[in-house]
Known about the structure:
- The structure is a homodimer.
- Chain A is mostly helical and about 240 residues long.
- Chain A has helices at about 15-40, 60-70, 75-85, 85-120, 140-160, 160-175, 180-195, 230-235, and strands at about 45, 55-60, 130-135.
- The longest helix of chain A is centred in the middle third of the chain and has 36 residues, at about 85-120.
- Chain A binds a DNA duplex (17 and 17 nucleotides) through α1.
Amino acid sequence: MTRKKVTLAYIANDAARKATFKKRKNGLMKKVSELSTLCGIDACAIVYSSYQAEPEVWPSTLGVHRAIARFKNMSEMDQSKRMVNQQEFIRQRIVKAEEQLKKQLHENREREIVQVMYRALVGEGLQGLIIVDLNDLGWMLDKTGKEIEERIKKLKKSTPSSEQAASAELQADKAAPENHAALNDVVAVEATQNQPWYMDLLKPRNEGDALNLGRNDPMPSYPYGNPTPSWSDFYFP
Amino acid sequence: MTRKKVTLAYIANDAARKATFKKRKNGLMKKVSELSTLCGIDACAIVYSSYQAEPEVWPSTLGVHRAIARFKNMSEMDQSKRMVNQQEFIRQRIVKAEEQLKKQLHENREREIVQVMYRALVGEGLQGLIIVDLNDLGWMLDKTGKEIEERIKKLKKSTPSSEQAASAELQADKAAPENHAALNDVVAVEATQNQPWYMDLLKPRNEGDALNLGRNDPMPSYPYGNPTPSWSDFYFP
DNA sequence: CAAGCTATGTATAAGCG
DNA sequence: TCGCTTATACATAGCTT
């Protein structure tokens, strides 16, 4: 027999599942490649799974290369900075408070989307795919915050008790990003001792790398609490 | 005639290109869906493009829903925090500096990968796709930092002048994340005046949203400079 | 297992309403 | 421009090596 009608269900057989994954992953990569070429979309695809040690990247590593090239342009921004002359200084001060508020909002949204993306999958210890047209990643920044608040409001009604904590967490994060510091430390310490449940999700490639990653930055001191904690702290203590 | 051999090249005709995009996008979504089902991968797919106002999400909005559910688990982490007893307090202090160093490294890598992903595509004002198996997003955190440094070293040799700034930028970011604050302000101000080149890439959905997003957080004050700047500041000043 | 090999199910380029 | 149809190119399940 050659090929049945593809039962759309989990493939129990390990070998078969792996084979299928490999084939379909390749197919998916090709599709992305084609979509990119045909529609003139500058696409980047990264597929990383427990099936393969090295991540699959398309196109080649061009996406990363380009990204690196972007870093060069940072200097252009610096130039812009210097181009600001005295005349603009006054106006700059006037809008400063406003800018700072906006900045805070955006930073919060950034943190939220990253947490959302990460926890949604890694937090569950599952595998996953994310396909994002980055033409306007800003959508996520714009939308996530609103949606989260909206959904939490709705969820509050259905499961008030457990949801309460989540809301509180959000509020805290918004108002004072640095208030996670203590928790981070605790989590980190716990990890070195008895590996709590969420640490099982953590499988660092090289244990040794955790401490010395080939960087020799001087550790900056933060007079007011710890540096703004990031979601990675929870998983890479 | 029905169907030619698919010339793998940019489709000049606008209508045809849009049609193809739509079809293939749907196909891609289906493929992801199938891969998820067949291989037991908890996948999430988001496709956003200039072709469509609303982003395509698979599975439905389940991914986001799940993400929200994750937020609930934050309370579990809080529980862990409280579970730390006096006995562990000493040891906690002992490894604190070490943890802080690691934390700093991870935060820097996080910032880098986000910048890389974003600038690689949005920075160029192009459309794009990112497919990431989030089973171990940590790979990015592990890898990006190293690769960036590595590549910058190589690039230094080929284009020393322009690359110098990039390297410096990186170093600065690593050593003192808050030193971007001033730059952010400048960029923001410039945007309100004469829209520099990199602002052309900025197309916020709702102008009004930028200032008031329905949140009424009190703006925290940062005694030492501005809050840790985020990449979003550059694009959403 | 990985790599090849068909036979067949699917995706989809063109045409049409 | 959109949706639907149809003929065909492509992807790939199940085997074989």
